[in-house]
Design brief:
Strand content: under 5%
Number of strands: 0
Structural class: mainly alpha
Radius of gyration: 34 Å
Largest sheet: none
Number of helices: 2
């Protein structure tokens, strides 16, 4: 049977990888972002290189699509006017 002291001790027991044997208790968990190493300077967040080329291609295709829709709409309106005149 558990005593309240046992429950309290169990609730304060570590639950991370070091308590499961992944990291030996004789070693400390190191901070990978410590001084030196490959993370000495931060790289600003932004679009990856080359995205501007993809943006230009998509903008050009959007312009072609828009022009095609305008032309299609103009032809439809012209056909509707011709149909109204022939009535």
């Amino acid at each position: 049977m558990f005593l309240s002291a046992d429950l309290k001790r169990a609730s304060h027991r570590p639950t991370g990888p070091s308590s499961q044997g992944a990291i030996p208790s004789s070693q400390q968990v190191s901070n990978v972002r410590g001084a030196g190493g490959p993370w000495q300077h931060e790289i600003p967040i932004g679009p990856p290189p080359g995205v501007n080329y993809a943006d230009r291609l998509m903008d050009a295709q959007d312009a072609r699509d828009r022009a095609e829709l305008i032309e299609r709409d103009a032809k439809l309106k012209a056909m509707q006017k011709m149909a109204e005149r022939s009535k």
